[in-house]
Amino acid sequence: MDLRQGIGLRRLGTTADEFQQDLLSSLYYRRGTTVESASPRDAYEALVLTVRDRLADRRARTAAAHFASNPRWVYYLSAEYLLGAQLEQNLLYSGTGEVAAEAVKVLGRSLEEIEDLDVEPGLGNGGLGRLAACLVDSMATRDIPAVGYGIRYDFGIFRQSLEGGAQAERPDDWAFQGNPWEFPAPDDRQVVHFYGHTEPVAGSPIRKRWVPGEIVLGEPSHMLVPGYGTETVNIVRLWRARGSEASFDLSRFSAGQYAEAVQEAVRAENISKVLYPDDSTELGRELRLKQQYFLCSCSLRDIIRRFRIRNQNWDDFAEKTVIQLNDTHPTIAIPELMRLLVDEYELDWDKAWSITRRTFAYTCHTLLPEALETWPVHLFERLLPRHLEIIYLINMLFLREVEDRFPGDTDRIRRMSIIGEEGERRVRMAHLAVVGTEAVNGVAELHSKLLRETVLQDFADLWPAKFQNVTNGVSPRRFVKLANPRLSDLITEGIGDDGWLTDLDKLAGLERLAGDASFAERWRAVKRANKIDLAAGDPDALTDVMIKRFHEYKRQQLKLLHVITMYHRIRANPTGDWVPRVVLFAGKAAPAYHAAKSIIRLINAVGATIAADPVVAPYLKVVFAENYNVTLAERIIPAADLSEQISLAGKEASGTGNMKLALNGALTIGTLDGANIEIRARVGEDNFFLFGLDAFEAAEMRIRGYHPREFYDRDAELKTALDSIMSGAFGGVGHEVAESLLGWDEYLTLVDYRSYLESQDEVEAAWRDRDRWTRMSILNTAHSGFFSADRTVSDYAARIWRVAPVTVPRED
Ligand code: GPK
Fold first, then answer.
1. Using alpha carbons only, how large is the chain's radius of gyration in Å?
2. Which residues are modified to N6-(pyridoxal phosphate)lysine (predicted)?
3. Domain residues for 37?
């Protein structure tokens, strides 16, 4: 299929010369400048456009093939996407990396210099947002017809820097100079309503008219999501809020009231102004609910528009559409689809409900109670009055079903209700998400089991078949091939071809090389070269990394207690045979999360004390890498020897950094939490450093009554570590960290301390035996193929989405 021919366009060339011609043409005609006067930005944008063009053909053929087959579509709804930098990825996915490197020389710049201008869109917080990006990558790679929907925040996750060792935040104006990767689609704009009231509709007991109090426009643009090794190019469509034309008040402007004249437009545009930087906690802010509804309303209308291009009959909607809800953030889509079907398309309630329930599926990403979203009923009533009515009706019919199954069990009804009645009445979004969907999944085996047995137990009793597990995965293209080209080349050479990039189980082919001395030598050389690139410290030291959001449940404070203990041990025995370590932390804390910020502050204070201590500094170095994001992760992960996955068991839903690090040959020290369990089962007990309570023991301990002081009193080294913080040994910093550990220690840090330290001793024993360590490292990579997001997507496709791939024909 050649869609260009029909309109008389020439095919884009594949040689460096042809690429260079197109690059110069982009510079001249699309940037309106010349080689002589091109700024660095001009060079960058000209290159982006030239690369983008090379994906445009594939995009056009994808759209044509999808239109022709009228397939069942996957729509992924997510408030967050951490797509990572686009240029390097799209050079790889369009197969133009080499010709581009050659061609850009004409601009007097290297490809690396130009790539430095490619800032990543930080439209997410952490694991959940990056998972969304990995899944859309794998959907395209597996030829699944899919669209990702999200919000085009003006400001992404804040930029972190350290000021006097404390986290400081600056806004992330990521598209300040424009974003050449995106295609605006103003014709597909949508109108979104807020506030106001509802009115009865004559002749219908169910339908209502919603008279809104505010009208906002949603303008879409999309980013290309190419598949690797296939023709498919899908899209992520991002919505940006705008005031309508009527929101500019000309008469006020003419009267000199400039601020008042634009206040309505400003209010509208605030909806997509900034990403909420809270990971796993809910603030219950009105603007956040507005963002959620904005995303869902725009996306659902777009989904319906797309459905109606090829279909007429609502009976087909649920057959042609599956909408995956990435956590509860887009759950308002459920009552919104009901509203559209009942009020606007005039379907009867039962039919609309049957369609809705069969259309949606829900992924839960947490077990932390504070992360389960609830919204005050009064807020809902004011902002989305019609949706609250619909939720009440859904709830009434649902509770009737519960009553039929469990007659007289009023306690169960109270527990399961979509409306929580304890204190202030609140809408429980997770309950709505379970009631309104066909499938609910957790993101790792343990997480899915705990969901069924604890948080969502009542629902699992009612609908056991609805609950599934789909273990997370990561993109081997971004996190191995792009991040770690040296290792990728070695793997390809070891296995014989690069088929592992789309069939990651093939990494098992490395197993036979784990005992091969010359391969091991090269494996070590790759790691060493990556450490030199990272330049965090001595490349021969054990590089021990803890990279993730700062949260007390993840227990950076436990890692810190280990560092402090090492500090005291070395000082007590300066001539000991210590294993040199570089301990690298990176991650952001939510700006309002004071306890997490105190931990960052203390890490840096301890790091400074150690650096200034001539006895300890030769063996121990603490590095805090600022502004952790996807780009930085891609530099750190390839250089890591040891991966810290030390959350309290039962708290980390899955983790995905753990997978990226294992794939890159880092050994894990970890608890039996989230996907650690599955990693350990695959790489083997001997190749994983396990410690700590399991989820059952941790829950028991909390119930029995836990007194951190007892652990402090019993363990001399722990006492020394905490006392040194309290006595001000680290620049007087960290009191509140020590106090919280001694006072309550929500996440049982002191309980796991001793076991963690013993496990770290085993780490050092393994590290001293170089050959053993390398063998373990190779086996980690060899046995981590399961953690490809391609496998995750295949699981969703087979068990939840029931979609088949659509092959996009090649050019003839
Ligand atoms: C879970 F609930 C949330 C959230 O609000 N943000 C977020 O990043 C993470 N997550 C989990 O904490 C990780 O364990 C998990 O791997 C990731 O989501 C993807 O499922």
1. 27
2. 660
3. 1-69+103-119
